[in-house]
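Project standup — Tuesday

K.O.: blocked on the structure for the chain from last sprint. Re-posting the sequence here as requested.
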Amino acid sequence: MIALIGIGCAVLLLAVFLIIPTGGSGHRVIRNRTVCSTNLSGMYKAFYTYSITNKDSFPLAGNTTPGGSAIGFAEGDRMLGSGVTLDDNVTANLWMTVRDGSTGTKQFICPESSDQPDELTDDGTRSGSPASLLNTYDFSSRSTLSYSMINAHHSAVGDRWNAAVKADWVIMADNSNNDFSAVSTRHTLTYGASTTDAQLMENTTNHSGDGQNILFGDGHVEFAVDPFQGPDQDNVYAMTVGGKNAPPTMGHDDGDAATDPMVAERDVVLLPLSGNGGGAGSLDPTD
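H.V.: unblocked you, prediction finished:
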């Protein structure tokens, strides 16, 4: 029995050494992935706490009725005056947890990215005037947020932004690679059902292309080596062309064109972090 235990321990140690890079840089990579995973896990706890007194719903900024377009970062919408109501805003949903103190700005930064925590000033700069936190509406810029999330205002999938969603649904992950333009040119590939090296180009750049931390509907976080996740194992960083189970193609973050692909009810789409060029670009409900 002792011999068998010894063999088992040796096999386990060998497996660990095979999957963890060696040397100082390897330890740093593992540490940063763990911090990133902890960030997402902490966000879920904040969302869940909010849902307890809000009929299972996670934080929603703006209109709570699904179907309207969702606004990305808008330079002029940093501050929210008394009584002002703005449109649906996917990133402001996350910012609500900063305002109520259940998360901090550092929690929205992946340590392997070049992003920096929001400075909590009126203009987002370190030298700016301190912001009145309760009057802020959104992150100051896209470089202060390292993660992507589903469109909680989408008429087909917005109801997944709640505490009752199934465990296999993806609600957030490391930042997508979309380039924030009207039509993303980051990648031009289309994909079939199998995973190839080319498909792995869709991985977030937060972790040197090795994979991404994925936050699932039940609050658990996994580091996935490819972006094919969720109930249909589709590319969470792209939109589905056509109906259910259609092969995914590269998405974009402006939904004004009449030929836009539609999101199927089982298609996980994690939005880019911005509208067009940092302005009030529309993240259409079809995105």
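K.O.: great, moving the ticket to review. The mean pLDDT is 71. The helical segments are 2-19, 23-52, 90-99.
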